[in-house]
Amino acid sequence: MTHDPLQSLLRLRRLAADQARSGLAESLRAETEAEAAVTAIETEIAEEAEVAADLTSGDADVEAFGAWLRSVRPKQHAAQAAEVAAEAETAEARAVLAMSRAAVRAVEEILSRHAADERQRSERRTQHELDEVGRRLGKTRQP
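Predicted structure:
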């Protein structure tokens, strides 16, 4: 059995596509977690702001909210930055997967063309053999 390097290449390309799919899944998971962190902080800020804005809240409550908000803002900005980074990573992972899929398709197309070429060569050989048999039979039947 002969070893076809294109079959090996196809296996490698498929493995790379599988790894790209796994990478995208991990990126999407990280992006979802980052989005959840941002949402949690924003929800907490909104809830605390609502309490501070309540007309029954005193000045101490409002000042406490302001101090708390100043301490939470860096966490919020960090969470937002992580979300942006996760989105960028996901976009990159999508591009890598698209390129991997294209590479698989390219090798599959080459293999398909090679198979079609081989079928055509085989048909030509068969036709040539039939023509040769016909010529031999024609020579033996002539007087």
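Summary: The radius of gyration is 34 Å.
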